[in-house]
Amino acid sequence: MKVRNVPILAACILALSACARTPDLETRTYALDHLQPGEAVDLISPYVFTEREGNPGLVSSSERALTVRETPDNLGRIGAVLAEYDQPAPDLRLHFRLIEADGYAQADPRIADVEAELRKVLQFRGYRLAGEAVVSATDWSEIRQSMRAGGRLYELTGRVYWPRRETIRLEEIALYGEGGSALSTTVNVRPGQTLVIGTAPQSAGDATLLLTVRAEVVPDA
Q1: DSSP labels, 154-200
Q2: If you placed Cys at 137, which of 33, 114, 160, 212 could pair as Cys (CB 3.0 to 4.6 Å)?
Q3: Domain boundaries, position 119
Q4: Within a domain: residue 191?
């Protein structure tokens, strides 16, 4: 009796073909000087094929490094991406202003750059500058600054998050007055943009306070 080995032979050929199509992977570790590990993983994820059948790509992170297992071509692309983005973050200058909104008859030239926009979105009859502060910041920095407005002392706190040097995220920006928290919010602002963060009501009969911020990138010296 002849034993037919055709199906077995075909299965072996298919298995060998599948093995031949599985790419060879290498492992490489990249030091991180400025990027946070989570940011770096997000940046390189398009080049790490974790769902590849047979030989998936892998990535792991530590506090200041990434270790990636991928094809040599993809490892080269990952290195180029990290070299482009793992750079020192420029400093930011955040210009905060407290503006009193009430029935002021005359325009305040000190806030001419924002008054027209305020009138488009708010219903107050007039605005004037009550206090201001300039804060230097960078990615993952904290804000703590005193501000005076109308004879009262306020404290401004919050955190700055600037991932990939795009939109600036001002997290948990809070304004504290004598009676406690007057304002607390999280907003996104672009470099060069002036944004109204929120309103802070005062005592009955007092003007409403508006908190604005303008974000600027500090040019290299």
Answers
A1: EEEEEEEE-GGGSSEEEEEEEEEETTEEEEEEEEEE-TT-EEEEEEE
A2: 160
A3: 92-217
A4: yes
